[in-house]
Amino acid sequence: MSDQSVNPVVKDITSETVTHPEYSAHEKVFLITDEASGLKAKLCIHTLIEGRALGGCRRWEYDGDEQWSADVLRLSRGMTRKSAVAGLPLGGAKAAINHGNPTKDMMRAFGRGIDMIEKKYGMAYITAEDVGITEELLMEVKKETDHVRGITPAQEGVELSGGDPGPFTAFGVFTGIKVAVQHRLGKDNLEGVSVAVQGLGDVGYYLCEFLNEAGAKLFVADLDGERLQRAVDEFGAMPVDPKEIVAMEVDVFAPCAMGGVLNDTIRASIVAGSTNNQQRDEINNVESKMLKTGNILYAPDYVINSGGLISVYYEGESRDRVMDIIGKQVEMTLDKIFAFSKSENIDTATISDELAKKMLQEKKSFEDIVSDRVAA
Ligand SMILES: NC(=O)c1ccc[n+]([C@@H]2O[C@H](COP(=O)([O-])OP(=O)(O)OC[C@H]3O[C@@H](n4cnc5c(N)ncnc54)[C@H](O)[C@@H]3O)[C@@H](O)[C@H]2O)c1
User: Fold this and answer.
1) Does 155 map to a domain?
2) Among 159, 173, 278, 362, whose CB has the most other CB atoms within 10 angstroms?
3) 161 in a domain, yes or no?
4) What is the CATH number of the domain that holds 328?
5) Which tens digit of pLDDT belongs to each residue from 300-313?
6) Helix (H) or strand (E) holding 29
7) Minimum-distance ligand 1 atom for the alpha carbon of 166
8) Which residues are catalytic?
9) CA-CA distance, 287 to 268, in Å (whole number)?
């Protein structure tokens, strides 16, 4: 199955990365290069559980090595926390190909690199889609390694999970919005609840579909005119200038586009969306504390957007069962985080980070850590 035209080199660059501010005790950091195809990929393995770590691969044209490392290290660390809170027995990792438009050869070389890392270091990195990586490109990776998730399975009768994680992520976000509305507005349904959705891509589009079915009043923005029009036509959503969507006075602001979106112009009662790394200053939870001061309920990004990861883990199982798992997991976790935040008067991101940290340190489930906290 192996294609001899790709011949990547895998370099362990952990020791060169330890001084990076985002390093955060990674297990290993690798650089995979392939001269013939031009591949340059960084693969960060933050933690391993039973020798495995999962996290998508993104492609991006980075503005220098520093930005490239910062992005992939931060995302990789976030995957450890996301997996733990989602109740999955997987370590966290992430890869980033530094290229605007990776070729099939690059993807095959990347796949071969993953295979080489498993053979040499005994670390099974499992890859999946992230920004800019399509299923078609993942198929190329799969030619060289079995450690690929997110390929649509052959469907026979019953609809199976797998392929595009967007609808699963969207369902988790939809569930999270319902939990937040219940906590903040005391409503058991979304009828008439106003939601501003920023970004109508893989997640935002499906989120609008769920929200529209539930009777929410939709305001939408996207930089892409076609995507915007589709949401207007299909869901009767009100189009909004992308510059104005963040500061709209609505019940819920649902960011589903790019990171670093939280700021002091937000006037919604709730912030609950799929965007990764919504805070600029994640370490100190500055933006989350600011939202708390403004009495805005924030659903921590890595909790509410875990649906895609859960679907990738349960790939090949019935779609209904996986949706059910996602709904229950997101509901249970956010419900506890919101309740602790209220009773202890601490912002939701700090509570969430504390619970995740304890789970990892004490190797306990979310439910056990929650029981310990209630008992304390
Ligand atoms: N796809 C998933 O399953 C998944 C899972 C977890 C987290 N996320 C995160 O959710 C976010 C959205 O993911 P996606 O897969 O839908 O991405 P996507 O690339 O499919 O869609 C993003 C959309 O946002 C729009 N956009 C970008 N900047 C904007 C702005 N300033 N204002 C309005 N629209 C803007 C783009 O035009 C695009 O249509 C990302 O942060 C991603 O990391 C996605």
Assistant:
1) no
2) 173
3) no
4) 3.40.50.720
5) 999 999 999 999 99
6) strand 28-34
7) 3
8) 94
9) 14
Separation of alpha carbons 83 and 302, rounded Å: 9
Angle subtended by helix axes 319-344 and 348-362, to nearest 10 = 110
**The domain containing residue 131 runs over which residues?**
9-142
The number of the ligand 1 atom at minimal distance from the alpha carbon of 221 is 33
Lowest mean pLDDT among 109-118, 130-139, 188-197, 248-257: 130-139
Q: What region does 18 belong to: left with phi over 0, alpha with psi -120 to 50, or beta?
A: alpha
Residue nearest to atom 43 of ligand 1 (CA): 276
Q: Are residues 173 and 49 in the same domain?
A: no
Number of domains forming the structure of the chain = 2
Compute, in angstroms, the gap from residue 129 CA to the centroid of ligand 1: 13
- CB-based pocket (< 6 A), ligand 1: 131, 165-166, 169, 198-204, 221-224, 227, 242, 256-259, 274-276, 305, 308
CA 4–ligand 1 middle distance (angstroms): 36
Q: Pick from 142, 174, 197: which residue ends a domain?
A: 142
Q: Which of 142, 177, 200 is the last residue of a domain?
A: 142
190-249 confidence digits (pLDDT tens):
999 999 999 999 999 999 999 999 999 999 999 999 999 999 999 999 999 999 999 999
Q: Which atom of ligand 1 is nearest to the CA of 168?
A: 3
Tell me, yes or no, whether 51 and 85 share the same domain. Answer: yes
The DSSP output letter for 31 is: E
Q: Are residues 282 and 175 in the same domain?
A: yes
Q: Are residues 126 and 21 in the same domain?
A: yes
pLDDT at position 157: 67
Q: pTM for the complete prediction?
A: 0.91
DSSP assignment of 311-362 equals HHHTTTSBHHHHHHHHHHHHHHHHHHHHHHHHHHT--HHHHHHHHHHHHHHH
Counting ligand 1 atoms within 8 A of each CB, the residue from 305, 309, 312 with the most, and so the one to mutate, is 305
Is residue 155 predicted with pLDDT exceeding 70? Answer: no
Interval 58-99: pLDDT, tens: 999 999 999 999 999 999 999 999 999 999 999 999 999 999
Nearest CA to ligand 1 atom 3: 166
Ligand 1 centroid–CA 10 distance in Å is 31
What is residue 281's DSSP assignment?
S
